[in-house]
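If you are new to this repository, start here. Below is one unmodified record pulled from the training split, so you can see the exact layout before writing a loader.
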Amino acid sequence: MSIRGVGVDAQGRCAHYRSDRDVVANRCATCGDYWACHACHAELADHPFGRMPLVESGSVMCGVCAHGMDYAAYSAATACPQCRHPFNAGCAAHASLYFLI
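And here is the target side for that same chain:
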């Protein structure tokens, strides 16, 4: 699965979020694409980011191993359940941009 965004690297980091832990992509409910971040979507898409239901499987994807998760699995994890790459804990502050909370 590809991750869309501005200056996206092989693990999903973008021009806006580039720390080692910024490897999570969120799926837009409107277009179905995975995006590196909300700012990338705002710059490149022609529609508002469609927030995903909390129980939607595959609404979040690890950019390192492409493991898909729903909100509950992602929000409970400090690292990818499959490859163990750590996630950025600060992403929790943006949950309402990506999910129907």
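Two things worth knowing about this chain: The CA atoms of residues 67 and 81 lie 8 Å apart. The first strand starts at residue 3 and ends at 4.
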